[in-house]
Design brief:
heterotrimer; A: Alpha-Beta Plaits; two-stranded antiparallel ribbon; 2 helices; C: about 400 residues; alpha/beta; Rossmann fold; 2 domains; 6-stranded mixed sheet; about 40% helix; about 20% strand
């Protein structure tokens, strides 16, 4: 993002640019984090499809990968996974 | 289309401002995947106004115009006209509005656009209350639901049947959907976008804080809504000069096999907004759901 | 000075409303939002005729309310098209929220407003209460006194507003029935010359899938003021750019260009009448009559109210002992906008004139040169004794004033 020092740095109108983390590192909202069990995961990608955050991506191996910077820990992925491949684990430490 | 073949590109980027487990966000993410890059979206005052995040950042990667609460359809109509005047084709103009901005304050502009046949795809993501302002009842709130303006007695009136109202406008395409059935949702959006004129798709978007259920149950709640026929999936389009209604997905299955239809009890019991409903009120909801379901089946020729 | 017989020029004998329609056609507006309200309806009707006969290549949206009319213009302008709508009175009031949005979005929409009184009860005749109530929002405001000026103002408004140093919307105002429905000759320059002078709109920002942006999302207090200051800055630039556009227009077409104030016999005036619109033209008779009586009078007609012509008003009033302001507007609990803002503009002068201000013509009550003569004489009488009064309602039964 450009530096906003004086009013001349503002755009002509309230215009915003697309970016990841528009509200910052929303991963700090989590109380529980999803952990994928690769042995059980069949890579159906339902978790990827249903994530409200787009915090689950598709890895090189075609399987889901979780972006913990932004995952809010809602648990939809774990609940929707029919193979029990995702477990919601309580966060142990405070994420700064 | 198989899930693995769906576009990987994200048009709603992570780190946005929606609540954890937000049904509307799933709906938006899937909608934009279905429609693709050459889309312009108008967003009136609603949850999505905030979900974008604050200036100078936005979580949405297609052009987005924020506009006043009641004005989504009129703004989309204006954009559509502007693009046409400039000779720009192949861009889909959509409105993405909540139930408040559609059923209530936005109904005039929407009805006007539909009557004129303005070339827009109007999508109402329905979380059944004014959620952005903290859960007040709207014309879309179902009977019995507790909201901050119906806190003790629950809503006394049933909701409007907005999809049927839009079908009565005779527009080229009307459909209902919910993120629990993502392929059905995306197919309908793509179908709508391929047509000329005013198209209306309403997406039931379960809301954990507003409906009072745990954030991981969002998709399940939409599934239950369809399975109880509280939110039937259907579409209406024109063929050979006649408006043809079709039930889709599980709703079609339930019409063919009525024993699959679940009673509303489980659906109501799963949500805190219906806590405190008396047995006769639950019966009233069941009666309303059944009446609308029978009407829909008749329209679809499946009575 | 262009001759009527010159090639490509047209001379039409039209109402103020049709003059607007001709200007919209000549400006090659691309999107028109249309909704009826007396007394502007014949504007959008004439434009419909132009569009359906293929004389104006524009998208014509027959919206279902004025709120949607302005919103559709906002959408069209955001998509990069030149947009127009027209309204009056309650229609303008209804689109109030949209006017804020258009200005804050920095969209160069031009709108014709036929000044009409507000209800209740219903009143279709003229006063300025409708547009004056919108003076805070960031719209440039031009008030016309004849149909040629109406035509000229619309063309110049697009030129001025689409300048990237401005990018604010503009309302061109004309009085209900006095101008809107009165026939006057209007000369229209050749289309190819206008096309050369007013090129197609090039937006500073737009909704473009190749360069996606979000417009208008949440802005925190930490950032909002700068966005708004940019609007004020643009308004301040209009002070310099508006007369430049006017001068450019005059030189190109030989027609009167935009400027802030039109004066008549003000150079040696001891009594200055300050007013707006057609009153400002009719007052010339008053000026001549008063001069016959030995009172050196002049009249200044404020043509552009936003931005308010502070410097011009100061220069006019400098050294003038008496100023009479006649407002066709009232801000209940205060007085007329022209008077209040004139007082604000003149406050800093070393030698301030005595100012007496009248409220007249509300709800379309006729204000003739005789009425203005009575007002001016009465004011002259008071101010000669060193007395100045403010906000005096002229012509109200039971209020004996002048």
């Amino acid at each position: 993002m450009e530096e906003l020092r004086t009013y001349r740095d503002w755009p002509i109108a309230p215009i915003s640019k697309p970016t990841e983390g528009a509200l910052g590192l929303t991963g700090t909202w989590r109380t529980f984090r999803p952990i994928i069990n690769k042995d059980r995961c069949i890579k159906c990608l339902m978790c990827w499809l249903f994530c409200p955050e787009a915090a689950i991506g598709v890895g090189e191996d075609g399987g889901p990968t979780i972006n913990y910077d932004y995952c809010k820990g809602c648990g939809i992925c774990a609940t929707e996974c029919r193979y029990g491949a995702i477990e919601m684990v309580r966060e142990e430490e405070v994420i700064a | 289309m198989a899930i693995k073949e769906l576009p990987r590109e994200e048009y709603l980027l992570p780190g946005h401002a929606a609540c954890a487990g937000c049904g509307a966000s799933i709906a938006l993410r899937l909608t934009l995947k279905a429609l693709g890059r050459k889309t312009i979206v108008v967003v009136p005052a609603c949850c999505t106004s905030i979900i974008q995040g604050p200036w100078p950042r936005t979580a949405v990667t297609i052009p987005l115009m924020n506009i006043m609460f009641e004005a989504a359809a009129a703004c989309a109509a204006g954009i559509s006209a502007g693009l046409k005047a400039r000779g720009i084709k192949d861009v889909t103009v959509i409105a993405w509005a909540g139930d408040g901005g559609t059923y209530d304050i936005g109904i005039q502009a929407l009805s006007g656009a539909a009557e004129r046949g303005d070339n827009i795809l109007y999508i109402c993501y329905n979380n059944q209350a004014y959620m952005n302002t903290g859960i007040q009842r709207s014309g879309a709130t179902p009977f019995g639901a507790r909201t901050t303006t119906t806190p003790v007695l629950g809503k006394r009136e049933p909701q409007k049947n907005m999809p049927l109202i839009m079908a009565a406008h005779g527009i080229p395409y009307v459909a209902t959907a919910t993120p629990a059935f993502p392929m059905d949702l995306m197919r309908k959006l793509r179908k709508a976008a391929s047509l000329e004129g005013t198209k209306y798709v309403e997406i039931l978007s379960p809301c954990p804080p507003g409906w009072r259920f745990p954030a991981d149950k969002t998709v399940q709640m939409g599934r239950l809504a369809v399975q109880t026929c509280a939110w039937p999936l259907w579409e209406a389009e024109w063929r050979d000069g006649r408006q043809v209604f079709r039930l889709t997905g599980p709703s079609r299955l339930i019409a063919e096999c009525p024993e699959l239809k679940l009673p509303v009890d489980a659906y109501l019991a799963a949500q805190g907004r219906f806590r405190g409903m008396r047995p006769e009120e639950i019966q009233a909801v069941q009666k309303q759901v059944d009446t609308w379901w029978e009407q829909l089946k008749r329209l679809a020729g499946m009575a | 000075m262009a001759l009527m017989a010159e090639k490509g020029w047209r001379s039409v004998f039209v109402t103020g409303n049709h003059a607007v329609a001709w200007a919209v056609k000549t400006a090659r507006v691309q999107v028109v939002a249309a909704y009826p309200i007396t007394p502007q309806t014949t504007i959008v009707e004439k434009i419909a005729e132009f569009v359906e006969k293929g004389e104006l290549d524009a998208q014509y949206i027959r919206v279902e309310s004025e709120h949607s009319a302005m919103t559709a213009c906002i959408g069209a302008a955001a998509a990069g098209a030149r947009a127009f709508t027209a309204t009056a009175s309650h229609g303008l009031a209804l689109m109030h929220e949209c006017l804020w949005w258009a200005a804050g979005a920095r969209l160069p929409i031009v709108m014709a407003v036929v000044n009409r009184a507000m209800g209740p009860g219903w009143n279709i005749w003229t006063d300025y209460c409708d547009t004056m109530a919108q003076r805070d929002l960031g719209w440039i405001q031009v008030y016309c006194a004849d149909n040629q000026e109406v035509f000229n103002s619309i063309l110049q408004a697009y030129k001025l507003c689409e300048d990237h140093r401005v990018l604010l919307p503009c309302m061109v105002d004309l009085e209900a029935f006095i101008l809107s429905h009165t026939y006057m000759p209007v000369r229209i320059p050749p289309q190819d010359e206008v096309d050369d002078w007013l090129p197609p709109y090039k937006p500073a920002w737009s909704l473009d899938p190749d360069e996606p942006i979000t417009h208008g999302n949440l802005v925190y207090p930490a950032h909002y003021m700068e966005h708004r200051y940019l609007m004020q800055e643009a308004m301040e630039r209009v002070r310099e750019l508006l007369p430049k556009v006017g001068e450019d227009y005059r030189r190109r077409f030989g027609l009167t260009g935009l400027d802030f104030i039109e004066t008549y016999k003000c150079e040696d005036a001891e009594l200055l009448i300050l007013t707006m619109g057609t009153m400002g033209v009719e007052a010339r008779i008053t000026v001549d009559k008063l001069r016959e009586r030995g009172i050196k009078t002049g009249v200044a007609r404020v043509r552009v109210f936003r931005p308010f012509p502070v410097e011009q008003v100061r220069q006019l009033a400098e050294g003038v002992p008496m100023v009479v302001v006649i407002d066709r507007h009232i801000s209940y609990g205060a007085e007329g906008a022209l008077a209040m803002e004139t007082r604000w503009a003149l406050y800093g002068l070393e030698e301030r004139p005595l100012i007496t201000s009248f409220i007249a013509g509300i709800g379309g009550r006729d204000v003739t040169w005789r009425d203005m003569e009575r007002m001016a004489l009465k004011a002259h009488e008071w101010m000669s004794k060193g007395e100045a009064r403010w906000g005096i309602w002229y012509g109200v039964r039971g209020l004996e004033v002048a």
